Amino acid sequence: MRGQSETIGVVLLMGVVVVVSTTIGVASLATFSGADERASGATLLDATMSDDFVRIHHTGGEPLDPETTEVRLQTPERTTVYRIADDGSLDGSPPFSAGDRWTLPEPPYSSGDEVTVAVVDTAGNAVLFSVTDRVPAAAEADPTATPAETPTSTDSETATETATETATETPTETATETPPSRPRGDGLSGLSISDLTSGGGGQTQTVSFTLDGRLPAGETVTVDLSEAQDASGKGKGNVRQLQYAKSTVDDDRVDVAAKNDDASVTFTADETVGDGETVTFTIRNVEAADDHSAEHTVVFSRSDADDSDSTTFVVRVSGDKTVSGENWNGDLYVDEDVTVGEASVNGNVTAGGDVTLGEDGAINGVVTAGGTITVAEDGTMNDAGDAGGDVTVAEGGTINGDLETGGSLTLAGPINGNVAADGGVTVQEDGTVETVDAGGDVTVNEDGAVYDDVTSDGAVEVNEGGTIHGEVFVGSGDDIECEEGATINGQSCEEYVEENY
Fold first, then answer.
1. Structural domain count of the chain
2. One domain for residues 269 and 287
3. CB neighbours of 276 closer than 8 A, spacing ≥ 6?
4. How far is the C-alpha of 149 from the C-alpha of 131, rounded, in Å?
5. Exposure string for 161-197, b = 16+ CB within 10 A, e = fewer
6. Is residue 278 part of a domain?
7. What pLDDT score does 282 carry?
8. DSSP code for 97
9. Boundary residue ending a domain (314, 347, 372)
10. C-alpha–C-alpha distance, residues 318 and 200, integer Å
11. Contact indicator for 60, 98 with CB cutoff of 8 Å
């Protein structure tokens, strides 16, 4: 019986080689490093390849476990490894059984390349199947042709003749299916790159990304920094405001390239990096000029995928920043406080501390402050604002946009927008606002006005000459305090409370 088993193995292997010969040309075995070259006498496979796809067809015999079965494509330049369970597409359910086909669209080679295709059992450390040929164009290979039935005779001579005759026959039916598009599950997530501060070189940036789908050895992830280096422009002495020309990375897998307007860092996998693994490295010696402040876009891309993803980082002015006498054109990011007087910032302002608009100071963009926002007389905010602390609008100051504050709001000038405050809101004389949503008490003083509704988690007090043109929403009528001459929704404050609470 042992002798018979060996004969069957030889016959089956011969059948495989002949079928492959008809599909993609003259076949030959090739050995891959780390695996013993052999063929499984119980599994029959064949392969079809063109410049558009590679397809492995299980034609008979024992099934294969997709988790431990790899397809290796070897060119003179490199070897790329794909696991059937993770890459390409399998048209049947696991295991990889007779009649099933595995397809890899867009393989990493071109027409005319000499390629070795091998199927490797990683559990047994063995090459199950291997063939080398020159890649035909797409029109020369039929991606859907079904190979002939593999002979099962125990007579080796009869099996060889039958396989040869069958393999050279022209298929009577040709399917018209299009090879499926390459799976795009392989991507990147968790993209991050740390911020910089203006003023000098020797800075570092930490880059991090997580792999969605494994990254085979030899494949790359490129972090394109060209927008940052190019968009930053040139400042004093014709020196670029942000540059990576002298940058390095202390990781043998990462290369830095920077010249003129282009800059990038490239991570090359020295071994397969698994799905879900996070890669982190630090770029050193990044240079940012004094007073340079901007948000920059960084593009991440994988060599084994068509899509790219992006994230941003900012260059912040360290310490405080005062804009006075000369306008600031563009967004402004500051670690601490920002003061604008007798000048304009023509962009968004983001400050870690307070933002103050002095006389004739203007910000023509969104203001985000970690601390307070103060708009003095003749100061103007021409967009929305968000403050972590209190907000004060002095008489003659103006905010043209919605406002959110983590503290309280006091206004003696107009806010041409809606207000949401965690604390209380006080509308002074000549103060006006659209709607008010407050976590604390709301007070409307004489000649102060709310043009729409007021919602408060505390009390609402409307003093003589104060006006709320919309509805008031509080816990109960007892939470509304009225002075004579106060009005709510077109009627006296007392009448409104009596009718609505």
1. 3
2. yes
3. 210, 211, 212
4. 20
5. ebbbebbeeeeeeeeeeebeebeeebbbeebebeebb
6. yes
7. 97
8. -
9. 314
10. 11
11. yes
pLDDT, tens digit, for every residue of 473-497? 999 999 999 999 999 999 999 999 9
Same domain, 251 and 370: no
Residue 154 has pLDDT above 70, yes or no: no
Order across the sheet with 262-268: list the strands.
196-197, 308-316, 294-302, 220-224, 262-268, 254-259
Q: Per-residue confidence at 374, pLDDT binned at 50, 70, 90?
A: very high
107 near 73, Cβ under 8 Å? yes
Q: Say which amino acid occupies 28.
A: S
Residue 94 sits in the same domain as residue 127: yes
483 by Cβ neighbours in 10 Å (0-12 / 13-18 / 19+) ranks as middle
pLDDT digits (tens, 9 = 90+) for 402-415: 999 999 999 999 99
- Which strands sit side by side in the sheet containing 344-346, from one edge to the other? 328-329, 344-346, 362-363, 380-381, 398-399
Q: How confident is the model at residue 125 (pLDDT cuts 50, 70, 90)?
A: confident
Per-residue pLDDT at 8 exceeds 50: no
pLDDT of residue 49: 82
Answer yes or no: do 94 and 76 share one domain: yes
Do residue 302 and residue 357 come from a single domain?
no
Per-residue pLDDT band for 48 (boundaries 50, 70, 90) equals confident
Task: Note the pLDDT tens digit of each residue in 242-291.
Answer: 889 999 999 999 999 998 889 999 999 998 898 899 999 999 999 998 88
* Region at 401 (left for phi over 0; alpha for psi -120 to 50; beta for the rest): left
Position 126 pLDDT exceeds 90: no
Closest CA to 49 of 128, 134, 120, 130: 134
Q: Is residue 355 predicted with pLDDT exceeding 70?
A: yes
C-alpha to C-alpha distances, 96 to 53, 102, 104, nearest whole angstrom: 19, 8, 15
Do 325 and 309 contact (CB within 8 A), yes or no? no
User: Which SS3 state, helix, strand or coil, does residue 381 take?
Assistant: strand
Helix-, strand-, coil-residue percentages of the chain, each rounded to 5: 10, 45, 45
* Mean of the per-residue pLDDT values of the chain: 82
Name residue 238's amino acid: N
| Structure tokens, 16 | 């495989």
* Residue type at position 301: S
More confident residue, 474 or 179: 474
Structural domain including 382 reads 321-500
Q: Is residue 178 part of a domain?
A: no
Joined tokens for residue 38: 């052999």
pLDDT at 463 over 60: yes
Choose one of 293, 314, 335: the last residue of a domain: 314
DSSP string, 141-176: S-TTPPPPPPP--S-HHHHHHHHHHHHTSPPS----
Instruction: Report residue 234 as tokens.
Output: 């040139």
**Angle between helical axes of 156-167 and 2-24 (0-180°, round to 10):** 20
